[in-house]
Amino acid sequence: MIHRFLERHFQLAANGTHPRQEAVAGLSTFLTMSYIIFVQPAVLSGAMFGFDSGMDIGAITTATCLSAAIATLLMGLWARYPIALAPGMGANFFFILTVVPAASAAGFGAGWQTALGVIFIAGLLFLLITLSGLRAALMQAVSPALKNGIAVGIGLFIAFVGLRNAGLILNDPATAVALNTSFASPDLIVFFFGLLLTAGLHARRVTGAILWGIAATTLLAVMLHFALPALWAPGASGAETPAVIKESQLMTRFAPEGLAGGPLSLPPSLGPTLMAMDLAGAITVKMLPFIIIFLFIDVFDTMGTLVAVSEQGGFVKDNRLVRGNQAFLSDAVGTLAGAAMGTSTVTAYIESITGIIQGGRTGLTAVVTAACFLLALFFSPLVAVVGSYSPITAPALVIVGSMMLQNIKRIDLDEYSEAIPAFIIILGIPLSYSIADGIALGFMAYPVVKLIAGRGRDVSPIMYGLAVLLALYFLFLRGPGGGA
Fold this sequence. Notes:
There is one protein chain. 65% of the residues lie in helices and 4% in strands. It is mainly alpha-helical. The chain has one domain. Strand 4 and strand 5 form a beta hairpin. Helix 6 runs antiparallel to helix 15, helix 8 packs antiparallel against helix 19 and helix 14 crosses helix 21. The C terminus is likely disordered.
């Protein structure tokens, strides 16, 4: 009976998949994005930056898991896409480092409550834009070249994030970034092991290659965590443990000992942040710019991610995303629910491509991912072991990013008026370290290049209007004194 329901609702056979394949895909997606369960509380509570924001870290954890589960479940059951959602990276930093201090400076008392109100209103506007049909028209106005450029750019971005999370790419004051040549570092050993194993399994078309890679890499990390210090224990060699080992993430962050008390724990209370948003403070002239910025972030991050994931999965038909309204509404509802519970903007996650590469083709993949977020509330010690140590999940991000490069074949590189704006997006997303900003650069360039090329009629009026709005946004909201 259950199998018949799944087949009827998700049309598994028609999409060339089956329940087991969807389950593996959903679990793979969850494992590659589970870091947000631990990063989000550290960011919003201020613990990551050494201050107390006033937000309860346990409540943030619960709000993160619940908002992700609600939005992802909607995406799976209603939009029927294998796309997962959760509080977005980037927006959370802007929330805690810019909006909360600005709200406090404006005299709104608990700044985080006003900031949650800003998130809620931005989510409501996103909902209205989607219901009005403006969102669908916007998606239709974007050319296939730009859409595929977005997919490639995001692929480079998440691969870059993976390399940075692993510690292979470091900040450098002279060149901005540089290669970490300490290949004897336990973190890089774990990362390279996971990357090469996963790449080899994927090349052999092994089902669940990324999931097997994560499992094997976790096992290696556990063994190294306990074995390496023993080599320099008193009576063993007598030598001091090398700094490259003592200071590694493997020794300072990875904590498999956390499972000593068992993998189960009760979810923290949601009470301290539930319905704590200050809507009256948010609806003021001083907070209006932040509402607009969050709206832009949500619209463009979601659009960029949905386009990239949909192109990868082959869900875009005739330059149109079928059931696009349901997908965007799932995102908007997730943001509203997240703000009401106590977390920042919820958005579609590019890590969803991990599940698609593992064979996920229907909303059942998203349903499995949503279930994992709910279970994570009770298995937080186990999730922490995998999700909190970046070199374990970083290989998956690099592999997924490499797979997205194939979208460049769909761009007509001989048509420069299409190829150059697409290239600006491809380059802009990873170099600006922002999906939204990279897309905005390409969108502003596109109509200008078309006009100069004498092909201005190829551009939708929406794209002209959007280019003007984006230019004004960067000049007056993101420029000096613009509050961003």
